[in-house]
Amino acid sequence: MEKFGVLNLAACMAAACLVFAAGCSEPDETATKGYIRVSSAEVAFPYIESSAQKFELTYNEAFVDVGRTTSREALVDLAEGRSRMAVMSREPNEAEIAALSTGERQFVTRTVAHDALVVILHGDNPVDELTVGQLKDIYTGKITNWREVGGRDIRIRPLVRDRNSGTYEVFQERVLGDAEYGAGVYPCSTMAILTGLAGSHPGSIGITGLLMTTHPQTMGYYKAIRVAEEEGGQYILPTQNKILEEPNKIHKKLYPLRRPFVLCYFKSSSFDVNLVSGFVTFLTAVKGQQLAIDGGIVPATMPVRVVKLTE
What we know:
Elements: H1 10-18, E1 34-41, H2 45-58, E2 62-69, H3 71-79, E3 85-88, H4 94-100, E4 106-122, E5 129-131, H5 132-140, E6 157-161, H6 166-176, E7 186-188, H7 191-200, E8 204-209, H8 210-214, E9 222-224, E10 226-228, H9 240-243, E11 244-245, E12 250-251, E13 258-267, H10 275-284, H11 286-295, E14 298-299
Parallel strand pairs: 1-2, 1-3, 5-10, 6-7, 6-8
Antiparallel strand pairs: 3-13, 4-8, 4-9, 4-13, 4-14, 11-12
Helix pairs in contact: 2-11, 10-11
């Protein structure tokens, strides 16, 4: 697979500036009244959609329409005025920030929650743990058979989301570095396809998000495995309580493949109050952060503690 190039958002912003009014609030819109369209990365969609539903139940004159897409496409939707908020599963890169900061409005980003890249295998695969280095060797094509990492004599079938997804880009940055995806890596257009293939082909390995394992998109028979930063290190299963440092209520960097959920939007001034600012406030306050906990991810703005109950 060729390396994905930087998206040129400058042209999008030029077009967006011509229709500046389309992205602004309606005259009678308030923080709890009106209509907005939100473009969300697929892995964040369950959380953002459930939050929108709770927001609408609380404020019955508010309508938040959440669409499912990729991180890169969500940002393009925002730039071109098709949505008023983008939810990404990675941080915007420098080129994207520069392109989106050229207009009259201020481009704003806010981390709302923390997610993880979850490594999934077919449920019958005896391998239960891998290092980041082994993942790199698998996805670059250096390791091609499960017996090379303690499994059965089966060819490895690596799966990844397509190039516009935050999952693709975060995995490229955190695991592959300057290396390229191998020729045998199979790109999947949706997480449902990826998890379906992982659960039906014994040799498959895929990369997904926490919400995709707590809100399964398929009935495929797959499992999440533990990951260590390096050989001899601690192997961690990506779960809420392993990402969150419970005693100090801060995010402890235990699991090596973490990533943020980032809200991206425009505002005209620090006094700009509209439905976008109202929904952002809801997501980053106690109710929205509790919804993150309930959904299986980690809150970013409130010190909410995860407590595991045992019988």
